[in-house]
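Progress note, project year one: complex with zinc ion.
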Amino acid sequence: MKAAVLRAPKVLQLSDIATPEAAPGELVLRVRAAMVCGTDLRILTGRKTKGVRFPSVIGHEFAGEVVQVGDGVTQFKTGDRVCMDPVIPCRACAYCKTGHENVCLHRQAMGYEFDGAFAEYIRIPAIALTAGNVFMMPAQMSFESAALAEPLACCINGQRNAGVQVGDTVVVLGAGPIGLMHAALARLSGARQVIVSEPNAARRQAAVDRGVEHMCDPSTESVMEFVKARTDGLGADVVILAIGVPQLANESLNLVRKGGHVNLFAGFSAGETSNIDVNLIHYNEIVVTGASALRRRDYELALNMLSAGQIDANSLITHRYEVADSLAAFDEAGSGRALKVAIHNV
Ligand SMILES: [Zn+2]
Ligand SMILES: [Zn+2]
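Model obtained:
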C-alpha cells in the first residue's frame, strides 16, 4: 500500500509498504479520511519527538471502513464505517482510575506507538477494541466529519479545564482550526462574547467567514486594549492559548481579569520555555490550566456534536489531497494558508 513514511525528522517519503493484516482481536481499516494536525507538523519538523518512532506512519485523526476483521472480533464487521479515539489508555494506572485517562502513565496512541493514518490502510490493535476506542460512525456522517472528532474532542477536554461559564467573555489566541473550534465551543457554553486574536490576515478572514464577531489583529492593535474596551476595563473571564507560542503565555495572563482562567491549550515545541510575571497569577488569583489529548467520553461527545450539527467542522476543511499527494498536503498544512487539510482515499 501507499503510505507517507516518516524516516527521520524532516524526512517524509511516499513509499510502498506492506499492507497490514488483522491478527486476532484486531481490525484493518481502509482509511477514507485523515486530517493533518498541528502536532503532525511539529513531529515532521522535529519540534516534537516524544513517543515518535522512525520509520513510522503518523496521523491520528481518521475515519475509515473495516476491510478485515481478526479472529474473535464480534462488535465490528467488514464494511462498517468507523472512527477512533487514537489515545488508548491502560485503564489500570493511578490516572486512569481517577478518570484522567488522557494523561495515562502507559497510554499508547495511533500515529505514535502504532502506525497511523497517512496510508491507504491502518491496523487497529486489539487493545483499542477492548478499551472501546473504536466507534461506529453515525449513519449520515461523512468520513471527513468523523475524522474531525479527535481535534474537537481535544478542544472539549481543554474547555473543561478552561471552565467557560454562561455570560463569560472568552479570548482565543490563534485562529487556526483549533482556535476556531474553541471559539465555537465557548459560544455553545454560553459565552457572552468571544474575541479571537490572529496575526495572519487570511486566517482572520476565515474566522470572520465562520462567524467570529470580534476579531483582533495583534500585529496592528493592542489585544489588551481591544479586550479591555469590551470588558469595562476588567479583562476576559477566560483566555485560551490556541497557538504554541511561549511568549503568549504572559500575554494571556495580562488579558484575563482577576480570578479569571487561562488555559494553555496548544503544545509548545520541546525544550521551549517562557518568562512569565508570576505575580500576575499570585495577586490576580488567576487559574492556569493545561490540556493534554482527550478522553474516550470527550471523543464520543465530539462525535455526537458533529453528527447533530452543533459544530460545523466541515467548513474548517480548506484543502483535500489523495494519499499519493501526501507530501503536498503537508506543505499546504504548514504554509499558514490552510485551516484543515484532509487526505483522502477515493
Ligand atoms: Zn490532532
Ligand atoms: Zn492508565
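The pocket of zinc ion (ligand 1) is lined by residues 37, 39, 60-61, 150-151 (CB under 6 Å).
Residues 37 and 128 are 21 Å apart (CA to CA).
No further modelling is planned for this target in the current period.
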